[in-house]
Every structure is written in C-alpha cells, then in structure tokens.
Specification:
CATH architecture: Roll
Distance between the termini: 43 Å
CATH topology: Pnp Oxidase, Chain A
CATH superfamily: Electron Transport, Fmn-binding Protein, Chain A
Family: Belongs to the F420H(2)-dependent quinone reductase family.
Structural class: alpha+beta
InterPro entries: F420H2_quin_Rdtase, Split_barrel_FMN-bd
Strand content: 25-35%
Shape: globular
CATH class: Mainly Beta
Helix content: 25-40%
Catalytic activity: oxidized coenzyme F420-(gamma-L-Glu)(n) + a quinol + H(+) = reduced coenzyme F420-(gamma-L-Glu)(n) + a quinone
GO molecular function, one term: oxidoreductase activity
Protein name: Nitroreductase
C-alpha cells in the first residue's frame, strides 16, 4: 500500500485527527520556513498550502496548513477542523477579511477568498474528497456545515 493510501485510511480515524491537531503548530512552522515544500511528514504527499489570513480580532497574520484541491488557477479548501463542533479560526478570518496569502510549491501568491456558493460546493466537494476522503467522516462528526472556500489569485 502506498503512503498516500495509508494516509487516507488513517485520516478517517479520530486518533489521526487528535494527532493532526497536536502536530499542526510544528507543521505550520516547517511549512512557513520552506514555503510549503516540507511538512512534519517530509515532502508533502497531498496537495496542500499554507494559508495566511488576518486575525479577525487581533489583526495579526495567522497561518494554517491546509489540504487543497485545484479548480483551474484557483485553490479550494474546506474548514473541516478535524470534525470538531466549531469552525476553524482561519475560516472566520476569511469571512471577516477575504484577502489572504498562500504559500504553495515554493511560491507565495496573494489571493481573495469567497465562500463557495451551493452550486460551487456541489461541484467542488468531490475534488476535495478525492484528495482527502476523511472530510466525509469529519462532516459526520459535527452538526455544522463545513465551509468550503475558493481562493482566487488577486489581480496584480
């Protein structure tokens, strides 16, 4: 079994979600320092990015390492928060200020985010699930709808 399939299988478990939450601070530091080229697991095996938002209360930059899917030149991310009952802080930050930055594949891009419409969500969710099937399990663990955001490169 290859490493990605193993990650997909493990990613559906509650234990993996707890481990992921615990390792996320270190992972953010490694990813930030390497512009997304390295993670706590070595070279990323899944498509991912480092999203930098502006804290809606603090006004300070906040980083989140997220698995992503592509939609043309745009990135798509989901606020699963490992299936916890509350939305992740980065998603609340994007609702307050949609201007953000992504570090991906060794480059940094300014983006503007929007919450996916119902039609976009229906079209994009299969791509997110193909990248990380665990999102189905995370959605089943919570009563909230998982927010799906589309990150579009900002005009130069």
């Amino acid at each position: 079994m290859d490493a990605t399939r193993t990650l997909h299988r493990l990613g559906r478990t509650r234990a993996f979600a707890r481990l992921g939450r615990a390792a996320s601070r270190l992972d953010r530091r490694i990813q930030r320092a390497t512009h997304g080229r390295w993670s706590v697991l070595g070279r990323p095996r899944l498509p991912q990015l480092v999203l930098t938002t502006t804290g809606h209360r603090s006004g300070q930059p906040r980083d989140a390492v997220l698995v992503c899917a592509r939609d043309g030149d745009r990135w798509v991310v989901i606020g699963s928060n490992w299936g916890q009952q509350h939305h992740p802080a980065w998603s609340t930050n994007l609702l307050a200020d949609p201007h953000a930055r992504v570090a991906v594949d060794g480059r940094t891009v300014d983006v503007v985010a929007h919450l996916a419409t119902d039609d976009e969500r229906t079209r994009l969710l299969p791509a997110l699930l193909a990248v990380w099937p665990g999102y189905d399990d995370y959605a089943a663990r919570t009563d909230r709808d998982l927010r799906v955001f589309v990150l579009t490169p900002a005009p130069a």
